[in-house]
Design brief:
The complex is a heterodimer of chains A (308) and B (283). With 308 residues, chain A is an all-alpha fold. Chain A has 13 helices and no strands. Classes of the chains: A mainly alpha (308), B mainly alpha (283). Chain A: This is Peptide/nickel transport system permease protein.
């Protein structure tokens, strides 16, 4: 197990370099001269040279990457052009909000999704199964930002139960968590349902029935335990998706976080900020997938032996 | 061969789910195609004396913050949203078919390099890939088309590759090789036509996701630029009026959700009719 984790960690190094290279190149792939994008309207040519020197744009690409990377290693993510503050500080202030929302949403979609999947599988072929499957389809097709707006309209504006936006207190977390998690529920429930139905057809389940165990015990203690392996796999993949979802939802609820920071940066063409946000989100996705892999390997010994 | 192919399509339309979904999609495509003639008002006609009016007989879906007719904007928006998603997925499928077929058929170092790229993008949510690309290309419809196309490329490449690899081992391909057929003939006349069905169904399901992605990018203000309406852009400008004129946001969102549901139902009916569920799950 220890060796497995080390191997996975080593595999992360090339991935990190490729991702960092892509993120670094963003500012250079933008059509036109990056300096034009960095300058505000009405800047003189003297300011132009100054900006080029400030961002190191007068040096070669490889040199620039090296400088950017070595600064990154010391935690210096550059300075936001529009807000004029260190990007590192902006990220540090916003990251906890994103982690809070992402974690809560993941937990919410896992618990609700598994419950819905178990219910649908236990009542396979009945109206309840059809109803849950229908709701699942509905949940996976509604755009999450629209659901967020709908929730704001009903629960915050009309009913006034929760704050409309922002991040003050735990009540402001309820609607964003639901809006982010719904897409995940659909996926988790679908996988749980199919895995439960397929497991229930296996021979050992018939033996358990023959032994005289109650159906409830068989479903929850034996079938669910087997069915959870693919569910955890999906959830591991979903960690990245939940993070992607938080980007949208943060913007809708005007919550601080990496997502709102990224969207604002994109709209204002604040490239150092965009680069840093994308790098952080990409790293979060990669680390999330790694954690998922490790959890999966811990649950299923075959995983850690077969794969490098 | 052709006649046999057409049968599952008819069978899909004949099923209850398939026929309802098919009708809706036909209705939507018709609306999008004939948008200029179907809209009761020009989509950009402003009238500030009737700002934020609720739905009424003269404006069936109400008006927005500039007094523009929401129904007309919805119809023209369908045109933008559909053409963007369909073009993007079309580009993605074509490139995916070529890349995937080359990978699956020739293998080797080329296959390995492409698969590293595919695996790398695979774990990232499409919205993040799309945002990264929009950051590079810049906001606007062209950027969105390209971003969506690249975001889904990995999926189609992988699906085509798996199909071609499976088919490559079949006896009929071996027979064709023994008859002296060249690579091009085998690929285009034998492998790709047989690999096409699962890819096209996956493309249909992906179009639904692409509509959501387009709406999301539009909502961020990164898609269609005003005054061009798209469902996402309508919701973006409608956020400020959420409390006074909720219909400006509710209706486009409903349109997105309905379209995606019916695309899924229709795709599902075709999957059942073609009996390719296992093929889709393999990839």
């Amino acid at each position: 197990m220890f060796l497995f984790i080390i191997k996975r960690l080593v595999l992360l190094v090339p991935v990190f370099f490729v991702v960092s290279l892509v993120v670094f190149l963003i500012i250079h792939l933008v059509p036109g001269n990056p300096i034009d994008n960095l300058m505000r309207a009405g800047s003189s040519s003297a300011q132009r040279v100054q900006i080029a020197a400030k961002y190191g744009l007068d040096r070669s690409l490889a040199e620039q990457y090296f400088v950017w990377m070595s600064r990154l290693m010391t935690g210096d993510l550059g300075t936001s052009i529009i807000q004029g503050r260190p990007v590192g500080a902006l990220i540090a202030r916003n990251l906890p909000y994103s982690l809070q929302l992402g974690g809560a949403a993941l937990l919410f979609s896992a618990l609700t999704g598994i419950t819905a999947g178990v219910l649908a599988a236990s009542f396979h072929g009945t109206r309840l199964d059809d109803g849950i499957s229908g709701l699942i389809l509905l949940g996976s097709t509604v755009p999450s930002f629209w659901l967020g707006l709908l929730l704001i309209l009903v629960f915050a504006v009309w009913l006034g139960w929760v704050p409309i936006s922002g991040a003050r207190g735990w009540t402001s977390l309820i609607l964003p968590v639901i809006a982010t998690g719904v897409g995940g529920i659909a996926l988790v429930a679908r996988v749980t349902r199919i895995a439960m139905i397929e497991t229930a057809r296996q021979d050992f389940v018939m033996l358990l029935h023959a032994k005289g165990l109650s159906p409830l015990v068989i479903q929850l203690r034996h079938v669910l335990r087997h069915a959870l392996v693919p569910v955890v796999t999906i959830l591991a993949l979903r960690i990245g998706w939940i993070l992607g979802g938080t980007v949208t939802i943060e913007y809708v609820f005007a919550r601080p976080g990496l997502g709102s920071l990224l969207i604002r940066g994109l709209n204002q063409r604040d490239y150092p900020l965009v680069q840093a946000c994308l790098l952080m989100l990409a790293m979060a996705v990669i680390l999330g997938t790694l954690i998922g892999d490790i959890v999966q390997a811990a649950m299923d010994p075959r995983q850690r032996e077969e794969r490098p | 061969m052709r006649a046999v192919r057409a049968m599952p399509m008819l069978k899909a339309i004949a099923s209850v789910k398939g026929s309802i979904a098919g009708l809706y999609l036909l209705f939507l495509i018709g609306g999008a195609l004939f948008a200029p003639w179907l809209s009761p008002y020009p989509y950009d006609q402003q009238d500030l004396t009737i700002m934020n009016q609720p739905p009424s007989l003269t404006h069936l879906m109400g008006t927005d913050e500039f007094g523009r007719d929401v129904l007309s904007r919805m119809i023209t928006g369908a045109r933008t949203s559909l053409s963007v998603s369909v073009t993007a997925i079309g580009v993605s499928v074509l490139s995916g078919l070529i890349l995937g077929a080359a990978c699956g058929y020739f293998g080797g170092a080329f296959d390995r390099v492409v698969m590293i790229g595919v695996d790398l993008t695979w774990s990232f949510p499409e919205i993040l890939i799309a945002l990264m690309l929009v950051a590079i290309i810049g906001p606007g419809l062209q950027g969105v088309v390209l971003a969506i196309a690249i975001a889904y490329l990995a999926q189609f490449t992988r699906l085509t590759r798996t199909q071609v690899m499976v088919l490559k081992g079949e006896t009929f391909v071996e027979a064709t090789v023994n008859l002296g057929a060249g690579h091009t003939h085998i690929l285009f006349a034998h492998l790709l036509p047989n690999a096409l069905a699962p890819v096209l169904v996956a493309a249909m399901l992906a179009t639904g996701d692409a509509i959501i992605l387009e709406a999301t990018l539009g909502f961020f203000g990164l898609g269609a630029q005003p005054p061009t309406p798209s469902w996402g852009a309508m919701m973006s400008s409608g956020t400020a009026q959420l409390f006074i004129a909720p219909w400006v946001i509710l209706l486009p969102g409903l349109a997105v959700a309905l379209t995606v549901i019916f695309l899924n139902l229709f795709g599902d009916a075709i999957i059942t009719a073609l009996d390719i569920r296992t093929k889709l799950r393999e990839a």
